[in-house]
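Lab notebook, bench 4. We co-purified these components, and the gel suggests they stay together. Before we commit to crystallization screens, I want a quick structural picture of the whole thing.
Request: model the full complex, all chains together.
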Amino acid sequence: MDTKVSGSQELFNEVIDTELCALCGACVGGCPYLVPYKGRIVLLDNCTLSEGQCYQYCPRTYTDMNAISQQIFGVPYGEDEVGTTKEVLMARSTDAQIRGRAQYGGTVTALLSLALAEGLIDGAILAKMSDDKIPSAFLAQSMEEILQCAGSSYMACPILEAYNHIPKDNNHKLGIVTMPCQILAISKMKKEPPQNRFSINNVKLVIGLFCTWALSPEGFYQFLRENLDLPQVTKFDIPPPPANRFDAYTPSGKVSFSLDQIRQFTLPTCAYCLDMTSEFADVSVGSVEGIEGWNTVIVRTDAGAELMEMAKAEGKLETDTLPPQNLAHLKEAALLKKKRALKEIIKRSGDKKNLLYLGLSESMVDKLLA
Amino acid sequence: MAGIEIDAPGTSQLFIGNEAIARGALEAGIGFAAAYPGTPSSEIIGSLASVARKMNIYVEWSVNEKVAMEAAAGASFAGIRALAAMKQNGINVISDFLVNLVMSGIGKGGLVLISCDDPSAISSSNEQDTRPIAKWLDIPLVEPGNFQEAKDMTRWLFDLTEEMGTICMLRSVTRIAHARGNVKLGELSKKEQKAYFDQIYDVRKAMPTTFMPVPSSLRHAFLHQKLDKAREKFELSSFNQYVGPDKADLLIITCGSCWLYSQDAVKALKLEDKVGILKLGTLWPLPEKFVEKHLNKSKQILFVEEIDPFLERSVMELVANLPPTSPRPTFYGKRSGHINAYGELNPDMVIKAITGIMGLTYQPRGIDYGKKAEEVAKSYVPERSITFCAGCPHRATFWAIKNTLKLDGRDGFVTGDIGCYSMALGPAGFFQARTMHCMGGGTGVANGLGKLGQFGFNQPVLAVVGDSTFYHATIPALINGIYNQSNFILVILDNNATAMTGFQPHPGTGMTAMGEPAKVVSMEALCHSLGARVEVCDPFDLKGTTATLLEMVAEGGGAKVVVMRRECELVRGRKEKHPYKVYVDPDKCIGEACGCDRLCTRAFLCPGLIWDKKTDKSKIDEVICTGCGVCVDICPQGAIIKEAA
Amino acid sequence: MTAKQLMKDPLNLIITGVGGQGNVMISLIIGNALVKEGYLVTIGETYGASQRGGPVMSHVRISGETQYSPFIPDGHADIILGMEPVETLRMLRRFGNPDVITIINPRPIYSIDVTGGEAEYPDLDKLVETIKELSAKTWIIDATEEAQKMGNPIFANVILIGALIRSDVLPLDKKAVEPILRETFPKEIEANMTAFSKGMELIRQ
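Here is the predicted assembly.
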C-alpha cells in the first residue's frame, strides 16, 4: 500500500482549490496555518513542511478503503452496499422531550445521553446551530448541551476542528456524531494516529449520519437569510423522496422550497462520495422512509452493539424490525450513490485507473460499476 | 561632550555635519528654525531645539516641510533670521512655495534653506539630487566639503541672503550630515532680535512692502540680476580652492563629500604630485572665471560628485561657450561611465576611476588575503535584514492585518507610506504593503482604488500611515475619501512618536520640539468630526484587532478609520521596565513538527525569538526580548509563557 | 597631545555591530577623547533604517594632519572592534588586511534571515577561528556576558572601550577617556567606570 503524504501546498492544489474539499475540518485547528472561515478553508501563513497531518487525514487525499475496512472491521471493503453490518433495525427514543427536539426518532440524542450518563464518554463533538442557524462545532458535556445540538442544518460544518483543538494531554473519552466524510477522516486517524494531538484512542464512540449531500454554508446560508427570518426557524427537514422538498418549520407554519432550487448549493465534492450510510461508524443513523418519527439504525462494531444493547436494556430506546422493503430500498439507494460517484470520479479523471482520492481495487470498481 | 551652544570660540569640537550647520546658524544669530523630521536632516532642528530656550530662539517641528518653509519665510518677512531644513523629499514638498518665494524675495531677515540628500537612499524611499532644483529655480547654491565648511557656509549664507534679498540653499549629503569631524568654533551671536513686519521696506516704492511673485516676468528679471551679483561674490569665495601641481596628469573637479573621497583616493595612490583637485563650494551660479582659470591645468578632467552630473554639465556648458582656441580637455565622469550616475560614492570608486584613466594598478592588500577573505565570507556571513524592533506594535498590527485579509479572502492589500512601517513591504511586516511612494501617498492611492467598484473591483484596501504621517499629509486625502465615498480603511499606527527619524514629537504627542507641553490634536476626534467611523484598537490584542478589522472590511461604504494605539517600544523602554518576563517551555515547544513548523521564529519573525539548533526548539534571546508578551498569543502549543516582571 | 603616539597616520578604526547595541556611543566617546588630545578625527556612521536590527558600522579616521573622509578605503582597516561576530567578519572581508588588529565580543545576534530559516548562522567556534586567521592579532572579550553580570547588557559598549584603551592600539589612556565618560554619563558614572575597568582587566587575560 502506497500512501504518499504531502503538505499544505499540495492539499490546496489537489483538494481545496479543486472543489474536492468537503469542509470536514480534519485539516484545521491543529496548527496555526489552516483555519475555517465562512465556508472556506483559509491558509493564514505558508507552512514549509512537505508532509503534514492536514494532508494525511484529509478524506479527499489518497484513501485506501480496504486498509481502513480491515483496520476497523477486519474485513475487506465493499462486501455490503450499506457497509459492514452487525444488525439493521428501527429505533426511537422513549423520552418525549428528546423526541420533541429530534430530527426524526431522537436515537442519536438518546444514545449520546446514555453514553454520557454511563461514563462511556465524557463529552461529544456535535454540530450546533446558533440562533441564526449557523452551524459550528460544539463540545457537549451534559444532557442539556446535547439536546441543544439536536436537529440538522444540512450545511457542511468543519466540526473536526474541535477535535484538533482539544489539548493533547487531555485524557477524557470522546464521542463524535458526524457525516461520512468526517468519519472517513477519523478512520484515517485511527489507522495512523495523529502526533501532538488529542489521542485518537480516546475517541470511544463514533455515530454516523446518513448523507446524500451537504449544502454550502456560504451560498446556502445566504439563500436562507434572504428567504427566512432565521431566528424564528425551529427545524429544517428534507423529507425522503418523493417529496423533493426542503422544509423550514416556524411558529407560524412550514415554509417549503423545491429541492430543485436548493441543489445548486450542494458541495461539488459530494458528487464524488461513495458513502451514504457512514460505513465506518460504530452506529449509523438515518430516517425511515414512509415512517415518521423513527430512525433506521445500522449497528456495525462491538462498541456500537454494546451501547445499543444497553440502551434497549435500560429502556432508553424502543426498537423494531426494519421492514424488508425499507432495507432493500436503502441498499439500492446506497449502491446507486456508489455507482454515480464512481462514474463522476472517472469522468473527472478521464481514466478508470485514476480514482482521484479513492483507493479501490480494479475488481471492486468493476463490481460496483456492473 | 560639547553642545552646539558652547561658548568657546577658537576651540575644536567633534560635531556631525548637522550640528555644524546648527552651530553656524547660532553664530549667525538665527532667531527662527523649522523643519519636519527627515533623515539625514533631523539633527539640525533637533540640536537647535535642545538649546532653544537657553539661546532665546524659536525652534519647531512643523507638521510638514511646506509649513516649515512657509513659517521660516514668515519670520524672514518680519526681519528675523530664519532657517528651514529638510531631506530631499522635503524640497519636493516645498517646491510650489519656493517658486513663488524666489519671485517675491525674502524679508529683512536672512533666510537659509538646508537640503540634505541621501545618495543610495540609505534611509529614503528614493534617491534624488536636489542641486539641479536650485539651478532650475534660480536659487544660489553652496555645498560644504567638510564639517568646518558646513558651519562656515551656514554662517555666511545669512549675510549673503540678506544682502541679495533672496533665499539661498546649502546642499548636504548623509556622509557630511551624519559623519563627525573637527569644527573650530566661532563667536556666538549676542545680537538681540526684534520682529516687525516692516510696512515700508523700500522707500522708493509707492506701495508698502508686499511679498508676492507678481508681476512675474519683471520679478524674474530682477531675480537674474540677483544671481549675477551672487556669481560675482562666488568668484572670490575661499570655499573654492585648488590643491595640486601646476601641470597635472589629471585634474579632479569635485564638491561636497566627494572632495574628501578624492583626497583620500589621491593619498592612497600617492599621486599628490600628479593629480590636482579643484574643489568648488559655491556651485550655482558657477564661478566661471575661477573655473576657467584652472581648466588648463590638465588635458584630462575627472568630475567626482553625487548624484547627478550637475557640476559636470555646468562646466561642459562653460567650455562649450569658450572661444574655439581655448583648451578642450578630455572629460571623464558620469557621462563617460568612470563614475556612477547613481548611488553614493566612496574613496574606492574614485581610486578605480583614477587608476582606470591613468592606467595604473592598485592592490591595497595581498592577493592571497583578499581571496581568502572573500571565500570564507561567502559562507560565514549571513544577511542581516532590517526589521521591526522586538516589542514593536507594528509587528502585531501587520500580523492582525495579514490574518484579516486572508480570512476575508478577497485578495485585500495595503497601500503603504513612509516611516518604520514602510518595512511592511518586506518580511518584517509579512509583505502586506504593496505600494509606497511619498508622505501621504498611500492614502491618496487608496482613494483611487476605493472608487473602482463600478469596474468590478472588490478587493479590500487598507491605507496604513503612521501618526506623524497622518498630521503631515493624510488629512486632505481622508477628507477626499469621506466626501467622495471611497471604499478604503485608513489605519493609523499611533505609536506616539515620529519613530524612524528619531522619536521627534508631533501634534499627537503633547510635546513641542522645545520640550514644552502642547495641546494634543486628537486624531480620532478629528477623524470623527470629519464624519468617518472611527475605531481605536490595541494592536497587542491580536484577537480583538483582527475581529474589528474583519468587520470593518466586510462593511464596505466610504472611508473609515482605525487607530492602532500603542507606544513605540524604544520610547516606552526608556521610561519603564519590561512588562513581562517571557520564556519558552521546551517541553511544550514542538518546533519544526506538524502543528507548528516554527511559527514564532520562521513566520512571526520577532528578533527576540531565536532557534536553538542543539535542542531544535525556540528560545527567547534575553538581550533582545523586551517582554511585550505578544508571542504568547501566537504559539499554537501554549509553549511561550509570560510572567509579570 | 599625550605622550602616546599614533601607530600610523591615518589610523583607521572600525567599530561594528548591530543596530541597538550602542555602537555609536563608543565612537562618540573615543572620538571626543581624541579631539581633546588635538587629533583630527572623522567618524562615518550609518544611521536611520539600519538601526532597526540592521548592521551598523562606524569608521573612525584618526590623523595628526588631515581631515579624512568618513569612509575607510577597502583593505585599509588598522583596528576592528566587533560587537557581534558575523558583523566582525563582514568588516574583515572588505576592510581587513594581514596587519589588522581585531577585538571581538563573541556574542551572536541572530538576524530574522537566520531565525526565519532563510540563512544559516555559522558555527561560533569556526567563526572566531576565521576571524583569527584574517587578523594579525585577536582579542576575545566577553563583553555582553560581563555586562549581564553587571545587570544590563548595554554596559557591553563601555567594557569594550576599556578593552580598546588597554590594548594600546589608540593614542589614548584612561586619563584621557575618563572625563569624557563623566560628561556622557553624569548620572551613572560609577557603574560605567566599573564597566570600563572591567574591560581593561579583560584585555590582559
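The mean pLDDT of chain A is 94. Worth comparing against the SEC data before the next meeting. The longest strand of chain A covers residues 87-93.
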